[in-house]
Design goal:
alpha/beta; Rossmann fold; 29% helix; six-stranded parallel β-sheet; 9 helices
Length: 329
């Protein structure tokens, strides 16, 4: 029998344990995937910890993966047996050797993108495309603030933003991570533990502030992000690694006619035409070399707990990927 990580109750990383599971034949509109690589994201950590209560328990976590189509159900026409596809699925279930997936969520992958690289970059890369080209369209000459600039999405925002001609200011927690952000294309790196972020942003922009602030950290960075905006600036809160942002008075936006959004990638991917456009844009910048898909560490599926522990430690700059083993398939 194939194996999967089954979450039975929220908790620390050690609640993630591998179990034998039954995978049925695909139904109408479904495919069965033999998985090759699985992305690990902070979203998964929030689900495991109970911060996000969006996975009915017991359930199989994980929203991103790459696999080969083993079987197709009735009415499936967009993929065939033997195709290699990637996906991002709000239905979860990625932490598995074999899984069923709605065929509509399958994205054909370019041959130039390896299994592990694809699993590391789909969610993060499509998130970056959403943030830079749809939530706020970054143009040459704009100033952009990126929190957690050495992280998975942050590094891609630095690369892609710089390629678009923006001046990217990144915040990081250490000199080592500053080097990662600068190598990725950030023009400046602010050590947020030692420096006042908003004051540094104003200094670096000649007092103007940034056109957009991309904030995946949440509670501890929200005020600094808001104070860093230029007039008509846009604060994009797309994560909460430090906790959710407390309620605040909307009137706080008025001094700069600022705007605030809280986008969710699944809303942008729900439309098939838009999803195809976003994927094409991501694959194009990867092909050009302006954006790179890097894998910092791989773990066997059976050691998903170790992968989560490393991700939460913030000691690693770069994506983590799970690799199913023969016993999992």
């Amino acid at each position: 029998m194939p194996r999967a990580i089954v979450l039975r109750a929220p908790g620390a990383a050690d609640v993630l344990r591998i179990e034998a599971v039954t995978v049925a034949d695909p139904g109408a509109g479904e495919i069965r995937l033999r998985q090759l690589a699985i992305g690990v994201n902070f979203h998964d950590v929030y689900v495991r910890s109970g911060l996000y209560q969006t996975l009915p328990l017991p359930g199989i976590p994980g929203i991103e993966g790459v696999g080969v189509v083993e079987a197709v159900g009735p009415d499936v026409t967009n993929v065939a047996v033997g195709d290699r596809v990637g996906y991002i699925s709000p239905q979860y279930g990625a932490y598995a050797g074999v899984r069923l997936l709605p065929a509509a969520q399958a994205l054909p992958l370019p041959s130039s993108l390896s299994d592990a690289a694809a699993a590391s970059v789909l969610l993060k890369g499509l998130t970056a495309e959403m943030l830079l080209r749809r939530v706020h369209r970054v143009e040459a000459g704009q100033a952009v603030l990126v929190h957690a600039a050495a992280g998975g999405v942050g590094r891609l925002l630095c690369q892609w933003g710089a390629a678009l001609g923006a001046t990217v200011i990144g915040t990081v927690g250490s000199e080592a991570k500053a080097a990662v952000a600068l190598a990725a294309g950030a023009s400046h790196a602010i050590l947020y533990r030692d420096q006042d972020v908003a004051a540094e942003v104003r200094r670096l922009t000649g007092g103007r502030g940034v056109d957009v602030a991309y904030d995946s950290v949440g509670a501890t960075t929200f005020d600094g992000s808001l104070d860093s905006l230029a007039t008509f600036g846009h604060l994009v809160n797309f994560g909460q690694s430090s906790g959710p942002v407390p309620p605040f008075a909307v009137a706080r936006l008025s001094p700069k006619s600022a705007s605030l959004t809280r986008p969710l990638i699944f809303h942008y991917l729900a439309d098939a035409a838009r999803r195809a456009e976003m994927a094409a844009a991501l694959f194009a910048v990867l092909e050009s070399g302006a954006v790179t898909a890097e894998v910092a560490r791989t773990f066997p599926l059976s050691d998903t707990a170790g992968a989560h522990a490393l991700l939460e430690s913030r000691d690693l700059a770069g994506p983590i990927v799970l690799l199913p083993e023969p016993a999992d398939l």
